[in-house]
Design brief:
alpha+beta; 6 helices; 39% helix
């Protein structure tokens, strides 16, 4: 049973469309399962690679992941956070955490973020001294 991925310009979502046969997939016009739109554009499907826990942890020990942290570069901290999230298979779906990482990627220092978002820092510290 083929599964194809599309982007729907009407609802601006990436969607999967399931077909019973390849013939059906080749000859039937795809319809967005979310909004019913018919202007879908086919995209490459995401690929997942199975790796052992040991392999994932080894990649986190890569010195390249730490590059830039010694210069206290907020962008390097954001890169490291995203890489750790990807390697551990944990999506960063917390909106506040995403905002923090977005601000780090924009070059904002942890101290500036802490001042701008005191409710997130709480009693703790966002790691201002890396």
């Amino acid at each position: 049973m083929p599964i194809y991925e599309y982007v729907c310009p009407d609802c601006r979502r990436r969607v999967s469309v399931f077909y019973r046969t390849i013939h059906q997939a080749e000859h039937q016009e795809p319809t967005c399962p979310r909004c019913g739109g018919r202007r879908l554009r086919r995209v490459m499907s995401r690929v997942a690679m199975l790796r052992s826990e040991e392999s994932r942890l080894e990649s986190l020990a890569d010195p390249a992941l730490m590059a830039g942290l010694e210069e206290e570069d907020p962008r390097a901290l954001a890169r490291m956070m995203r890489q750790m999230s990807a390697e551990l298979g944990e999506e960063m779906d917390d909106p506040e955490l995403n905002e923090i990482v977005d601000r780090l990627e924009a070059g904002q220092s942890p101290e500036e973020i802490e001042k701008a978002m005191p409710e997130v820092a709480g009693d703790g510290d966002l790691g201002g001294d890396f």
